[in-house]
Write a structure and sequence with these properties.
Bound molecules: flavin mononucleotide
Number of strands: 13
Helix content: 25-40%
Radius of gyration: 19 Å
Strand order of the largest sheet: 3-4-6-9-10-11-12-13
CATH topology: TIM Barrel
Order of helices and strands: EEEHEEHEEEHEHHEHEHEHEHH
Strand content: 15-25%
CATH class: Alpha Beta
Mean pLDDT: 98
Shape: globular
Number of helices: 10
Number of domains: 1
Amino acid sequence: MSRLFSPWTLRGIVLRNRIVVSPMCQYMAEEGVAGEWHHVHLGSRAVGGAGMVIVEASAVSPEGRISPGDLGLWNKEQEEALRPIAAFMRSQGAVPGIQIAHAGRKASTASPFRGGRFLSPGEGGWRTLAPSALPFGAYGVPEELDEAGITTLREAFAGSAVRAASAGFEYLEIHMAHGYLLHSFLSPLSNRRTDGYGGSLANRMRFPLEVVDAVRKVWPMDRPLGVRISAVDWVEGGWDLPSSLDLSRELAGRGVDLVDCSSGGIVHDAKIPLGPGYQTAFSERIRKEAGVATLAVGMITDPVQAEHILITGQADGVALAREMLRDPYWPLHAAARLGVDSPWPLPYARARS
Ligand SMILES: Cc1cc2nc3c(=O)[nH]c(=O)nc-3n(C[C@H](O)[C@H](O)[C@H](O)COP(=O)(O)O)c2cc1C
């Protein structure tokens, strides 16, 4: 029996296996609205057999986009464009998930394939928002959020959660990683506030946890809620694993069902020891010490490696990103490799060896 191909229950939702397509920005949206690219890209990965496909970071407000090509979920048109995509993924047996995000001080850049540099307002960019007026590398200096701005953004996250539920998504993930807005409140490297939202660990966690509370209140009780964190900043004096353990316990107590364990992103020059499964140790510690289900991610490419992560208790599920770009049918190939008799899409049955 393969653990990778065992069903996975999260609240009222059952995944057919423990393979998750990690959220991946495509930078192909117009005004935040999904188009044909998103249908085909996401639909292919659902056809490919994943248990869940998570739609890329979708901005809760216009200035929360990383680039002008990001998806958004701040208006009705964006919600309507996502509805058939969620329905198609569901029809193919994959749980439709979506990540909601605000890029904070890392917003307002060109997409990576257009150079990726910071865009000033005169170049099609916009004014960025952050806990403190500290720029990310050579990006523009962000505006420090005041209490009214914090309240507006908390409501924006909740508004996007309502739209995600209405559009038919069954899993919602709050992006609290990679140096974006919520992570930038957590990390002492980017949060230098002296009010109730900065200073102590409890204060730095305050706004991200308020967002979680606001979202959990509107996200349906029978659907799982996840949070992606950067378990460590990989910088001396930055966010660390003990802080992630505290945060994960708080999240679990607030009705978060899954912690998606990534890392890094708060500074551009961190030394990250990249290698196969380089983040699974974080997922293992959080799962065991915070008592919450976890998703392992990062250079997981091989079915045997994925199986090993699960049977050794390092995570409850695995998320794959780049490998799913190389091979949208990875789950079908993984089943064959592990000797699992997993169904293929009926129109493709004649190709099954
Ligand atoms: C093209 C691309 C876009 C990405 N966009 C997102 C995103 O929208 N949200 C997110 O949390 N991570 C994003 N990531 C990070 C991946 O989800 C994943 O955590 C990372 O690539 C490591 O996994 P991998 O080694 O399997 O690629 C992106 C990665 C890639 C390659």
